[in-house]
Write a structure and sequence with these properties.
It is an enzyme of class 3 (hydrolase). This protein is an alpha/beta fold. It is built from 17 helices and 20 strands. It has helices spanning 7-10, 32-37, 39-45, 80-92, 111-116, 177-192, 229-240, 259-263, 280-283, 291-305, 323-327, 330-346, 376-387, 392-402, 439-443, 449-462, 464-468, and strands spanning 13-16, 49-52, 56-57, 69-73, 96-101, 130-132, 151-154, 159-162, 197-200, 246-250, 271-273, 312-313, 351-355, 470-474, 481-487, 492-498, 504-507, 517-521, 531-534, 539-544. Bound molecules: alpha-D-glucopyranose (GLC) and calcium ion.
Amino acid sequence: MTQTKAWWKEAVGYQIYPASFMDSNGDGIGDLNGIREKLSYLKQLGIDFIWINPVYSSPFIDNGYDISDYQNILEKFGTMAEFDQLLAEAHLQGIKIIMDLVINHTSDQHEWFIESKKSLDNPYRDYYIWVDGTPENAPNDWQSIFGGSAWAYDEQTKQYYLHVFAKEQPDLNWESEKLKNELFSMIRWWLDKGIDGFRLDAISHVKKDEYSVKATENPFSPFQNVSGIDEHLNELKDVFDDYDIMTVGEASGVSAEEGPEWVGADGYFDMIFEFDHISIWKHEKEGKLDVINLKRALSAWQTALDGKGWNALYMENHDTPRSVSFFGDPEHYWQKSAKAVAMMYFFLQGTPFIYQGQEIGMTNMPFTAIEQIDAVDSRRLYNQLLEEGKSPEEAIDIVADTTRDNSRTPMQWGSEKYAGFSTNEPWLMVNPNYHTLNVEEQENDPSSILSFYKQMIRIRRENQGLIYGSFKEYLAEHDQLYVYERSFTDKNYLIIVNLTSEVAEYSLPNEVDVPWELLLTNQEERVFERVGKLDPYEAKLFVTSKKRN
Ligand code: GLC
Ligand code: CA
């Protein structure tokens, strides 16, 4: 089925984690001016828009996802004037800016919460979710996503407030019209500034269930994609509809079947980040990647939205480990598997997002001590593991594998001290592999991962069929290969990727037997074979203009 055209469908996005991207003033923390310095790098890569993680005023308990003032910039990142300069310069270079919008919760240091806490009859009381309880008895058994009870007791007013994330991140009460209107006018303020859209943080949590509802198999179900959320999201959409922007919602707990409701013609957002394919890494800590499960997750979204909505495509972000470390084999096939993973997701139907450092194949960090880790949830998990009787060595082993800090280490620009990220010791350790794994090393090497990304971006731009073409999967039950075809008016494309470190044999159906021409590969050229073999992590993109059914 055909897809309507839109700039954000043709675009390639790049996610910037500002604290770790580029430090312009040598305090060890990345900043807005650092992003501005690197715009030409992004331009050369072929990026159309950047999504910047939160840069607003914040006590930084959850690295900026705890906002204390939505209309100010955190000093360590810069000033509002510097933000405006970044926006203007990005636009001059043809790069759009998508801001992170965190409206499920604020910081406990936001003036709304400081007021709200003061008394039961404070005018801001109902901006947050307050419920009666005794110090011994929380309102119910709901668990925070970051661990422990989702309720925090306030001695002074003898009530609990709800926090789906850390206790320093109280949830906003979307049932209050006044609160919603404040949020909407703040959103308009940013849009009137001329930004190009939003990534909506934790947006599937804004509706909560009745407090009598118990957490079941999915402990987060009482506050995740709860029925009635459509009313809130439609109001939000009414605000967005006044602007020519792009929106992408972070939508945990939304299934592929529900996808069209969220991003279809009348959907709440242009696209959403789904969690199905990324959540398989949690179940797969040891051992081999479950290729079939990965394909099932990705293909379900492709099929559900084909002709009905649009996907946001991603393999890593600031909350996940590095994709080459999990989906690839950095020890034996670092470069090749990074390219295979890249090709596998990049030509699916949707807008591809690249997370900073992914384009050079950055890997997980070999953390060896809890002092090296910053992420609030990881530190909490570590303490919990110790309480459960694990030794510090066992605990750090578990935490190191899964911590979000794996993807938050400083960007590796060059081989000089601190990887060219800063002139001073960075807030989070640089991965020791920066001596050889860095941008400088890859920039002029046509066989590098970086050059491969540039090629993929160029090829996608030059081939509308890779953007708008429909999706069809082959060999769904093959446990090594992901094979899919994209068909468009006059051209078809075939993507074949081996996602394992073993040779893979295959036999494709007769209908695929047409003269295919090779467009891109991560190893030596090879003609198309309907029945054949692929080397470990071999990845191929073919094109044909031969008409077929
Ligand atoms: C989202 C963000 C994550 C943050 C959480 C709470 O999941 O991606 O980094 O900790 O929301 O705001
Ligand atoms: Ca700085």
